[in-house]
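To: structure subgroup
Subject: Chain for Friday's discussion

All,

I'm putting the inputs and outputs inline so they're searchable in the archive.
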Amino acid sequence: MNMGIAYMKKGDNKNAEKYFRKEISMFGTSGYRLENKYLEEAYFDLGVIYWKKKDYSKALEFAVQATEIGRANADNHFLMGRIYLSKGSLRRGCVEVPGSFEV
């Protein structure tokens, strides 16, 4: 996980994605999936990477996965709101972004 974040901070999203996907493949099917904070972060960070690539459908898939694990994490809702707004879905975006402040 830390390697993915380090690559992401350096702007090397290709290698960051590789490490985040490795985290998901290792822990995504385990019985502790919903309690795994690192798994939530891997999905979130992949959502950010794809949002920056303007692949909003893929970004939304990862953001939804992060939100399923960390429902109370305001960052997940904020990311989903930004993705919806980027897709031009003003109504959905305006629901998620304010929701991030309520969590």
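Points worth raising on Friday:
The mean pLDDT is 84.
The CA atoms of residues 47 and 63 lie 5 Å apart.

D.
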